[in-house]
């Protein structure tokens, strides 16, 4: 780093103390005003389940919920997220660390391959299903078009979301054996793989 770069970097005096409410927990951090929400989540709060792809609002891999609605966390500053409820992919797992119902449906329907895009799709789906718990397959196809996946071809992502919606309406939790494709095997995707 040159002396010029050092002189233009943020000083401690330029940083601000903010409170972020993430997954129901209030967290304090000292950050630059220009820090994006996704960087604050990943680097300051160590919630690395939220991924960063394009960093300019196109790919959707950084999707989180802001007050329940899907939002691109690369397009928000962390300071703008104060006084809002932020929900990340880490919230989806069960309290014992097992996969949540939506994650289980993605796993058993093969709704992911490399998994890089998956946290974004999960949060997109979570926010959407809260708004529309009985979507048609065509509606789900339109919703997932907002995020990029370079592996799956999308069909299995749609399958996963449609099935989760059906199971929730039936009152199932989507756990082992509930997604219509048998019980999970040792090859099934783990929470670690899905959310990080
Ligand atoms: S990283 Fe935010 S939309 Fe691509
Ligand atoms: S599973 Fe690889 S980019 Fe979507």
TrEMBL record:
The organism's place on the tree of life at top rank: Bacteria
Listed Pfam families: Fer2 (PF00111), Fer2_2 (PF01799)
Region (Disordered): 173-196
Pathway: Alkaloid degradation; nicotine degradation
Domain 2Fe-2S ferredoxin-type: 16-92
Upper lineage: Bacteria, Bacillati, Actinomycetota, Actinomycetes, Mycobacteriales
InterPro entries: 2Fe-2S-bd, 2Fe-2S-bd_dom_sf, 2Fe-2S_ferredoxin-like_sf, 2Fe-2S_ferredoxin-type, 2Fe2S_fd_BS, Beta-grasp_dom_sf, Diverse_Oxidoreductases
Keywords associated with the record: 2Fe-2S, Iron, Iron-sulfur, Metal-binding, Oxidoreductase
Entries under Gene3D superfamilies matching the protein: 3.10.20.30, [2Fe-2S]-binding domain (1.10.150.120)
Biological source species: Gordonia namibiensis NBRC 108229
Molecular function in Gene Ontology: 2 iron, 2 sulfur cluster binding; metal ion binding; oxidoreductase activity
UniProt name for this protein: Putative oxidoreductase iron-sulfur subunit
